[in-house]
């Protein structure tokens, strides 16, 4: 049998096996939301019925974040410096486990934005932040994931097909997981795919280093340093300002991530899963997302986002590349369907049930909005194909939303007696301020400007609350015993 046929056979077999295992695990749970109350239906579809053990929480969080935008984008920078995103992520996961997660469980939240409604005692602030999350998911993350996955497949296998063909195929399969199985199917497929991808990812690291005899000489020093210069993607001083809050936002308030940890039967079970994910993030992920890219610089020169697919195609044996392709496609699918599922949760819980109709068929509505989100993401794939670096583009664009959103959480968690309109004003002001820093005047690195945007947004909320609405904010931590009073 020709090697290419073996490669395809392995790919199909592994992909089908993951799908079958997911099906077996999911069929034991309720297969329909018929007869359930709206609240129970939401919990079943969007929080897996509160039945995720720590194993699936850790696996799903890990693979939801680890996809082609990470593997392709970070390796595409071809420097060790990008590992700081992963090391800093450990801090964000610890904050999620110790600070945010106890509050989400305390307030019995289905979405992270539900916490804002309960703290500000108004639904409009929840809806606004839900819309901002949706904009980020649909217009930034979904198309970036589809583009990265398609680009990897083309460069790894040398395929001569339009990138949109692969993007459509990935989008359709990912949507089926999100619609038919809900979060339960997403988390289970994440975990099994994660074991495969992390294992083979480490094999790629070893074989890549072996290809250059473990000799990193002749690689420019700026690509091997962990201390970023002012003109690098991550200047060292940004680790002390915006980087900290980017991680707190992403891991602590982002529905796509926190949804997994909120879906455990108990707080301790969810926290255990988050801590395991943090260990994986610290030990395993960094070499996978930077070393192949650095090696590719020595082998091929500056090839940008094509680096990872090219080196994987060169160093892996043909028969094993089929299994790796299955793991990579699984990573794309799980990230894609995770974002779809969380986006649907935000729309259904935060917008549709409050402003349109509370009496809905959750499963059907989930299918409709998922289809709409998929079509929008596919339309934007060509836009991302024209960018110089996926990961840098995604991070910079998301700054438009992340820091204003985080300011709303910070004010809501730390203070009482803050008018929701002051928080809304600050969020809108923060978006406009960061847009100014991004497109008009940028005196410092964009990560620094994200930090200044956050501080300005928090202060703006408190000042407007006092001067416009005549209220004095009072310190009142959301985790205190009387916070629900």
Write a concise keyword list for the protein shown above:
485 residues; two-stranded antiparallel sheet; mainly alpha; Sodium/glucose cotransporter; 2 strands; 1% strand
Protein described:
The structure is a single chain. This protein starts with a helix and ends in a 10-residue tail after the last strand. 74% of the residues lie in helices and 1% in strands. The chain has helices at residues 3-27, 38-46, 54-65, 68-76, 84-106, 112-120, 123-157, 163-211, 242-252, 255-261, 267-283, 285-300, 307-315, 318-356, 362-385, 390-414, 420-439, 446-467, and strands at 415-416, 474-475. It has 18 helices and two strands. The protein has a two-stranded antiparallel ribbon. α3 packs across α11 (267-283), α5 packs antiparallel against α11 (267-283) and α10 packs across α14 (318-356). The model has no long low-confidence stretch (mean pLDDT 85). With 485 residues, it is mainly α. The chain is globular, with a radius of gyration of 22 Å. The protein has one domain: Sodium/glucose cotransporter (Up-down Bundle).
| CATH class term | Mainly Alpha
Number of beta strands = 2
The secondary structure category is mainly alpha
CATH topology: Sodium/glucose cotransporter
Q: Could you name the ranges where pLDDT drops below 50 across 5 or more consecutive residues?
A: none
**What is the string of helix and strand elements?**
HHHHHHHHHHHHHHHHEHHE
Number of helices: 18
Name of the CATH homologous superfamily = Sodium/glucose cotransporter
Strand content: under 5%
Shape: globular
Q: What assembly state would you assign to the polypeptide chains in this entry?
A: single chain
| Number of structural units classed as domains | 1
What proportion of the residues is helical, as a percent range?
A: over 70%
User: How far from one another are the termini?
Assistant: 70 Å
Mean pLDDT over the full residue set: 85
In CATH, the architecture is: Up-down Bundle
Radius of gyration: 22 Å
Please summarize the sheet with the most strands: 2 strands, antiparallel
Report strand order across the widest sheet: 1-2
